[in-house]
Structures are given as structure tokens and as C-alpha cells.
Amino acid sequence: AQTVTQSQPEMSVQEAETVTLSCTYDTSESDYYLFWYKQPPSRQMILVIRQEAYKQQNATENRFSVNFQKAAKSFSLKISDSQLGDAAMYFCAYSKYGQNFVFGPGTRLSVLP
Amino acid sequence: DTGVSQDPRHKITKRGQNVTFRCDPISEHNRLYWYRQTLGQGPEFLTYFQNEAQLEKSRLLSDRFSAERPKGSFSTLEIQRTEQGDSAMYLCASSPPLEKLFFGSGTQLSVL
Description:
By secondary structure, chain A is mainly β. Chain A contains no helices and 12 strands. Chain B is built from no helices and 11 strands.
């Protein structure tokens, strides 16, 4: 069964600085998708960024980018120019098309003014 | 596109009672998922539908839990004989053929 691990329960970053959240996963598949979701205190889950495993190029969305290392089964999220509104729980997730999405335990990110 | 809608937002019930939650997905999304989330944890998969067919159920989904998606539109999740351990946020999400989950705001269940 696929598993997703996030080894950092909590992280903090100074406003305007850069922070990297770690994620590793376990799968025997070669074609799959990886995601980072953000859950602010409102508890509404919001998609931050998505990566297809067959693409070698790392996905980017404005201040958010990933470092996808397929051989190492690693998928980290880099947040640049951190803003107070980035404070939230961040969940890494894995899916294979047509199957369920597996989420990691999450990393709580605090942004310090 | 009004997003994924869940009703009710909050439900307080007594142990042993039955509860039912409703989820209305984004209209063109053919897949619908139910997850359970306790505070400080990641969402745990419960079940998912492709159109009206229930394709996968988690071992977490005991015989007290049942989900339906009649005609491939809205879905309901029913919990019979609720227990205090059922207290959690129940999240619904839908997905188009493009692999991406869109979540509702969730139903917070408290079992007293």
C-alpha cells in the first residue's frame, strides 16, 4: 500500500523568507501524481501545487515550487517570500489515476512577523 | 461553478443515534470521495465513487457506515449507532477526469 510521510510536524519561517517542507512516499508504481494541499484554520482544503510523475520538470505556482526526486521518492515544497497568509497545515498527497488519494500526516507552518 | 457543497456544516448528536451527511459535487465531476479527518491529522480515505458506482471502500468503513451516490450526482454518508470515536470532520471532495481533488468545507460531527 502507498504511504506518505511528512517528517516535520511543525515548521516556522520569518515573513519574506523561504521555507521548505519535506515529503517522502512509498510506491511501486511508475506513473502517479503528487500534490501539496493547504488547510488554513478554516479547515477548507486548498490545492497548492500538483506534479505528474512522468514530468521531469518541477512544478511551480507563483511563490510555490517543488523539488521532485522520483528515484528518491521525495517531493518537497518550497515557499518563497513567505506571507502571513501562508500559515496553515500543509499536507502532501499521492494518487494513482482512478484510485484514492493518500495523504501524509501534515506539517504545521507558522509565519512569524 | 459553485464548488463542492456539504450539509450540514456542524452536527451534534448523542451516542447511538444515526446521522446522515450530504455532499453536492461540482456538476461536471464524475468522481466523488469521502474522507475523515481528526484534529491535527491528515485526511483518511473512506470511500469513493465514479459516477454512481462505489469503487473502493476503506477498512475504516465499518458496517455502521454506508455511502450512496444515486444517479451519479449528490452523495450521502450515513453513520448508524454513532460512537464517540466517530467524532471527526467528514470531508467530501470531487474530481474531474484530470487528477485533482476539490474539497468541500466539511461536516464537523460531535458525538456526545
